[in-house]
Write a structure and sequence with these properties.
Elements: E1 2-3, H1 13-17, E2 23-28, E3 31-36, H2 40-58, E4 67-71, E5 75-77, E6 80-83, E7 87-91, E8 111-116, H3 121-135, E9 139-144, E10 149-156, E11 159-166
Parallel strand pairs: 8-9
Antiparallel strand pairs: 1-3, 2-3, 4-7, 5-6, 7-8, 9-10, 10-11
């Protein structure tokens, strides 16, 4: 992760569009952060999680439904025109319908999942984790591909509380999706 040098103006979406191939960025609280694009294992993990959650929680098939589950959502919040967790979720009670096709999501997620990798670990832990608490995301998952561990947090009194750690469970109940058991063991991509 790199932090851009200060410029005379705040970074904008045009700065993100001007990044070279293979580099992605986020603007969080007026600071442009850049990193290399996630590699295949990283993407496979995010896709496995999103896929397993979408059917029971997004579509109500074998589960309660009531969620929007999105990979790499474009979220725009005050002073943060671009932040994108690997996977994000919104209760449909709070966000009854998605935004128009070319618009960002302008609502704080109820849940985010970040997959740690060598290029995103520091950024996810030092920048995004405290930012998500500050803006009021209620649940946060950290997925450590190297350790094969999922760490689940719940926001309580503006601080993250560890709820549980998971690795190879076939019937794990991870908040906020604890209504049905999830097979975490199936999520891990080949090493």
């Amino acid at each position: 992760m790199t932090v851009a040098k200060p410029v005379a103006r705040p970074p904008s979406l045009a700065d993100l569009d001007a990044l070279p191939p293979g580099i992605v960025g986020e603007i969080i609280e007026g600071v442009l952060y850049t990193m290399t694009k996630p590699r295949m294992r990283h993407q496979l993990m995010a896709l496995a999680i999103a896929s397993d959650l979408r059917s029971p929680f997004g579509l109500g098939r074998g589960g309660p439904g009531g969620w929007w589950i999105v990979t790499e959502p474009w979220i725009e919040l005050p002073n943060t025109p671009e932040i994108a967790p690997n996977v994000g979720g919104w209760h449909q009670q709070r966000m009854p319908s998605p935004p128009p096709p070319d618009e960002p999501i302008r609502m704080v997620p109820d849940w985010v999942c970040e997959v740690l990798s060598s290029t995103t670990r520091r950024h996810d832990l030092l920048v995004k984790l405290p930012y998500y608490a500050k803006v009021g995301v209620t649940h946060h998952w950290l997925v450590d591909l190297e350790a094969r561990v999922i760490i689940v947090h719940r926001l309580e009194s503006e601080a993250w509380r560890l709820i549980g750690t998971y690795s190879n469970e076939a019937e794990a109940r991870l908040e906020p999706f604890h209504a049905i058991p999830l097979n975490v063991a199936d999520w891990w991509p080949p090493q």
